[in-house]
Design a protein that fits this description.
heterodimer, A: alpha+beta, Uridine Diphospho-n-acetylenolpyruvylglucosamine Reductase, domain 2, Uridine Diphospho-n-acetylenolpyruvylglucosamine Reductase, domain 3, 4-stranded antiparallel β-sheet, 35% helix, globular, B: alpha+beta, Ubiquitin-like (UB roll), DNA polymerase, domain 1, 2 domains, 5-stranded mixed β-sheet
Chain lengths: 298, 161
């Protein structure tokens, strides 16, 4: 359970980080919360020669919001800060819920939003709500910076588009649509410190009539190597007046679209069933919240 | 290669030679000789190694000591008053029989402190959530929850920190 030898850097600015990652390349790893990285190092799955600790870089931390534009969350922002943010709870509820369900109080105090996406675990809590909320990531290198949707950033199990010399610096969340609501839920063996067997986030917006679905994002986690957007299920509801029959159809469609494996946490069959269960719950909750109806019995 | 770093632990400043790979739990236990902090699973699951860094609960078995410079570290030893009087949470654990083998206790108490510092009158559910990252294998959870609840009442009525 010991770590390999490495050289440690604690840069103070984003420029210094870019200089270091540009110079040290793949032999370096970014240390954010360390709750995944140090465990992989202890298990000898990773043996970086250099660690670049980004926790002292103020410009990569914190949550800001501009009405009409949306929120910006720095990559090194702690999960606990997101969990306790009134702004995130009010505007991006699914993300607030996912942050509150991640790990334990200790893990939430250490882990960062950027780390959760860069580690790219298929069972990660925060990528599904971020994708459902339409989040983009900003990727920076010495050459410049680019923006891309999070679903294009995460390529597979522990794979992202990050190339040598690049880092993720922030998440951009668009202003929520009027009459919209987002919800997150999961299925796991216990409430804390478990790894989700299935998780899901729904972001639903209604037309002026308060009944017709204007837009919908349903994103499933832990049933595919990447956060999976339930395209078919969304198509069933978009443009339609929300009702129980269509909701059931959408839940079944999501279950078919899921691409789960059987592993230690759940069988593929169980995961498929749970996708439908979560879809029903979340669609109903999001519809109720978006339409201003009192929450149902879910 | 060893580097000399400065750590502030329980309001005392220590100058310690460390390797970048040295973990906070090992430095606290072996170099500073504060053995109240326990090393359990070593992979951030059990919570026995919990310490407070700037008031937040942190797993010292997956924290680099070198990354803690300039921060305030509190271990279980830092909760006792100068005159040796136990912190209300410690006293409440004793009074409620919330300590069995004792291995989880330091981490459990520090997680409780972080919780009670933010909310001195937590509900039973909030307490359970607050200590969800601390595993007790004697399973004395019932008394632990009662001890934390009672400590919260003492703290809010006496205004102790």
């Amino acid at each position: 359970m010991y770590l390999n030898d490495f050289e440690y850097f604690a840069p103070k600015t984003c420029g210094e980080i870019l200089d270091l990652v540009g110079r040290l390349g793949t032999k370096a790893k970014i240390l954010a919360g360390g709750t995944d990285l140090l465990i992989m190092m202890k298990e000898k799955m990773l043996k970086p020669d250099y660690l670049i600790d980004i926790n002292d870089v103020q410009e990569l931390k914190g949550i800001s919001y501009e009405p009409g534009k949306g929120a910006v969350i720095g990559t090194a922002t702690k999960i606990s800060e997101i969990e306790h943010s009134d702004l995130i709870r009010e505007k991006y509820f699914a993300l607030s819920q996912a942050a509150g369900e991640l790990g334990s109080a200790q893990v939430r105090a250490m882990a960062t939003l950027g780390g959760n996406s860069c580690h790219a675990s298929p069972a990660a809590e925060t990528p599904p709500p971020l994708v459902a909320l339409g989040a983009k990531v900003v990727v920076k290198s010495i050459a410049g910076e680019k923006e891309l949707p999070l679903e294009e950033f995460i390529l597979g199990n522990r794979k992202t588009t990050l190339a040598e010399g690049e880092i993720l610096t922030k998440f951009l969340l668009p202003e929520p649509a009027p009459r919209s609501a987002s919800r997150y839920s999961y299925i796991g063996l216990r409430d804390a410190m478990e790894i989700d067997a299935v998780n899901m986030a729904v972001n639903l917006a209604l037309e002026d009539d308060g009944r017709t679905v204007k837009s919908l994002r349903m994103v499933m986690g832990s049933v595919s190597p990447v956060p999976l957007i339930a395209v078919e299920a969304q198509g069933i509801l978009i443009g339609q007046v929300f009702n129980q029959e269509l909701m059931e159809k959408a839940a079944q469609a999501a279950s078919v679209e899921a691409n789960p494996i059987s592993d230690i946490r759940a069988s593929a069959e169980y995961r498929r069933e749970m996708v439908a269960v979560l879809a029903r719950r979340l669609l109903q909750q999001a519809f109720n919240a978006a339409s201003g109806t009192k929450e149902g019995n879910w | 290669m060893k580097q000399l770093i400065t750590l502030e632990i329980n309001n005392r400043v220590y100058e310690i030679p460390v390797d970048p790979k040295d973990l906070l739990v090992d430095v606290v236990r072996k170099k500073v000789a504060l053995t109240g902090t326990k090393k359990g699973c070593g992979q951030g699951d059990c919570g026995a190694c919990t310490v407070l860094i700037d008031g937040e609960p942190v797993l010292s078995c997956i924290t680099l000591a070198i990354a803690c410079q300039g921060k305030k570290i509190t271990t279980i030893e830092g909760l006792v008053a100068e005159d040796g009087k136990l912190h209300p949470i410690q006293q409440s654990f004793v009074d409620h029989g919330a300590v069995q083998c004792g291995f989880c206790t330091p981490g459990m108490i520090l997680s409780s402190k972080s919780l009670l510092d933010k909310n001195s009158r937590p509900s039973e559910e909030e307490i359970k959530r607050g200590i969800a990252g601390n595993i007790c294998r004697c399973t004395g959870y019932k008394r632990i929850v009662a001890a934390i609840s009672a400590a919260g009442e003492t703290i809010s009525s006496e205004g102790v920190k």
